[in-house]
Task: inverse folding
C-alpha cells in the first residue's frame, strides 16, 4: 500500500511505539510539526487512551514552541483526510505569518440553532454531567429501526444500484 504516513517524508523528531512527531517535508510555515499515529487508524477510530496520548504529544509540542521558536500563538489542527492515520498539525504562529484560518461568522436563525443544539444534546450528550463514552456498537433498537426502514424502501432502491450500495455499506458498518 502506498501510504505516505507509513513512510513519512520529513525529519522525525520523536517516536514511540504508537506515534511519531516530525517536521513535514513541505511545511505550511516554519514551525509546522505533525503528530501522527503509527497505526492505520483515523482519529475517530482511536480509543480514548490513544487519543489522549496523541493530544498530549501535540499539547506538549505546542507549549514548547512558545519557548523554542518564540511563537506568539499556536494552532493544533486535526487533519482527517484520505490518509489512514490520525494527523495533528501543530503550528507555531506569529503575527503576519501569512496563514489565515479566519471565517466570516454567519447569522443563523435562533430557532435553527436551538434545534441543532437540542439534537446534539439528545443524541450525543444525553447525560450532561457524565463523560461521554465512545459508542462501540449501535444500540440494538437502532439496528432494528434501520432494518425496518430498509425493508420499506427496498423496492425503490433495487433499480438504483448507487443508492443500494450506499445503504448496504452503511449497514455493513454496523457490527
Ligand atoms: Zn500508513
Result:
Amino acid at each position: 500500500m502506498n501510504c505516505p504516513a507509513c513512510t513519512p517524508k520529513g525529519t522525525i523528531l520523536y517516536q514511540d511505539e504508537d506515534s511519531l512527531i516530525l517536521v513535514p517535508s513541505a511545511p505550511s510555515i516554519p514551525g509546522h510539526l505533525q503528530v501522527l499515529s503509527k497505526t492505520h487508524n483515523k482519529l475517530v477510530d482511536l480509543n480514548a487512551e490513544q487519543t489522549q496520548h496523541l493530544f498530549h504529544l501535540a499539547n506538549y509540542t505546542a507549549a514548547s514552541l512558545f519557548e523554542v521558536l518564540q511563537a506568539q500563538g499556536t494552532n493544533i489542527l486535526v487533519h482527517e483526510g484520505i490518509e489512514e492515520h490520525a494527523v495533528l498539525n501543530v503550528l507555531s504562529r506569529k503575527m503576519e505569518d501569512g496563514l489565515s484560518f479566519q471565517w466570516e461568522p454567519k447569522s443563523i436563525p435562533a430557532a435553527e440553532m436551538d434545534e441543532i443544539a437540542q439534537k446534539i444534546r439528545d443524541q450525543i450528550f444525553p447525560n450532561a454531567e457524565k463523560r461521554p463514552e465512545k459508542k462501540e456498537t449501535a444500540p440494538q433498537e437502532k439496528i432494528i429501526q434501520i432494518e425496518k426502514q430498509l425493508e420499506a424502501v427496498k423496492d425503490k432502491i433495487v433499480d438504483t444500484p448507487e443508492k443500494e450500495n450506499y445503504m448496504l455499506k452503511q449497514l455493513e458498518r454496523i457490527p
